[in-house]
Write a structure and sequence with these properties.
The complex is a heterodimer of chains A (64) and B (270). Chain A is mainly beta and 64 residues long. In chain A, 9% of the residues lie in helices and 30% in strands. Chain A contains one helix and five strands; from the N terminus they run ββαβββ. By secondary structure, chain B is of the alpha/beta class. Chain B has one domain: 3-Layer(aba) Sandwich (Rossmann fold), CATH 3.40.50.720. Chain B has an eight-stranded mixed sheet, sandwiched between helices. The chains are: A mainly beta (64), B alpha/beta (270). The A-B interface holds A 5, 26, 28-31, 33, 36-38, 40-42, 56-64 and B 37, 39-42, 126-131, 134, 151-155, 157-159, 169, 173-176, 179-180, 182, 187, 190, 192, 197, 223, 225, 234, 236-242, 244, 269-270.
Chain lengths: 64, 270
């Protein structure tokens, strides 16, 4: 199980990019942190989520 | 700094707060805060900063007031349509609080002028309406070692965070760079609830006041999201900067704004 924004999800083995595709977020407008470290966008395809990982995923809007 | 009788009455509700008091009010009266963008976020931020007795309030905007602004940009009035937003906002502030000195920057912030504008201020509020502008402000503040409040609002949702040099991530750590434009959403079709923009702008004013006074916990290393439809605030912890960040990382690619001019150019609201 992987904790995403405090909720346990069964997404072990998926890459961050694969997980993000399954939710409503726009991948270009989010920030992702894994186990306390920011994951650069270039790594979303490479980072495979493992049992016990903790993710924070937050969306940004640009209006004012 | 002398507190007059009129000031003592005006700020009496600050004086009774142990976190502010007379000494905190003197700090506010000597503080210089710049608000970039006198729109939905900036209206609320400017009004509360002025009411709080911020000594110098800078207003940077290059736009004129239009009728469709007034649904959310509450510092402007119907009689101000067609007037420069800086002048309209200054008029409101001078009526609200004569203790505040207003400085107008009636120009679009660009690679060429932003660092000289922000150099005169203690804290900056990003109240702009595009990611291009938000990244320009972020990078300028990082390079000039200035603290600032980031916020964004669209529809019913917004986010806010505070950058303090050396203390936590900057916007570029989090997003990498200006997101590509979403062709399916335009400024007018996205829409925004006026009061939701006011909530986020008020939060930015709170961060500025807390920074000036050195009180409480700033939104450094934390992002606060607001969803007005669900009426929920959610907090996301991002305590560490990205060591590979192109502007604040260990080996920054962006060493001057001019290095990165193309990314800041462009217009839009999303």
């Amino acid at each position: 199980m992987v904790k995403v924004n405090g909720v346990q999800l069964n997404i072990d083995g998926k890459t961050i990019a694969e997980y993000i595709k399954t939710i409503q977020y726009d991948i270009r407008r989010i920030a992702v942190e894994r186990n306390g470290n920011i994951v650069p966008k270039s790594e979303y395809d490479n980072v495979v989520l493992k049992e016990g990982d903790s993710l924070e995923v937050v969306g940004f809007v640009g209006g004012g | 700094m002398v507190i007059t009788e009129e000031m003592a009455e005006r700020y009496s509700r600050h004086f009774v707060l142990k976190e502010i008091g007379v000494s905190g009010q003197k700090k506010l009266l000597q503080a210089k805060v710049l608000v970039i963008g006198a729109g939905g976020l900036g209206s609320a931020a400017l009004m509360y900063l002025a009411a709080a007795g911020t000594g110098v309030v800078g207003i940077a905007d290059f736009d004129k007031v239009s009728l469709s602004n007034l649904q959310r940009q509450v510092i402007h009035g119907s009689g101000d349509v067609g007037v420069d937003k800086t002048l309209s906002a200054e008029k409101f502030i001078s009526r609200l609080n004569p203790d505040v000195r207003v400085i107008l920057h009636n120009a679009k912030m660009t690679v060429d002028n932003i660092q000289s504008v922000i150099s005169g201020y203690d804290f900056i509020l990003d109240c702009t309406d595009s990611f291009e502008s938000k990244f320009l402000i972020n990078d300028a503040c990082v390079l000039s070692k200035k603290p600032y409040s980031h916020a964004g609002i669209v529809c019913f949702e917004g986010q806010i965070m505070t950058y303090v040099p050396g203390k936590g991530p900057c916007l570029r750590c989090l997003l990498g760079g200006v997101p590509p434009r979403d062709g399916s959403i335009t400024c007018s079709s996205a829409g925004v609830l006026g009061a939701a923009a006011g909530v986020m702008g008020s939060l930015q004013a709170i961060e500025a006041v807390k920074y000036i006074l050195g009180i409480g916990d700033l939104l450094v290393g934390r992002i606060l999201r607001f969803d007005a439809l669900k009426m929920q605030f959610s907090e996301f912890d991002f305590p560490k900067s990205d060591s590979g960040c192109a502007v604040c990382g260990a080996n920054p690619k962006i060493r001057s704004l001019a290095d990165n001019r193309a990314e800041y150019e462009g217009t839009g609201c999303m």
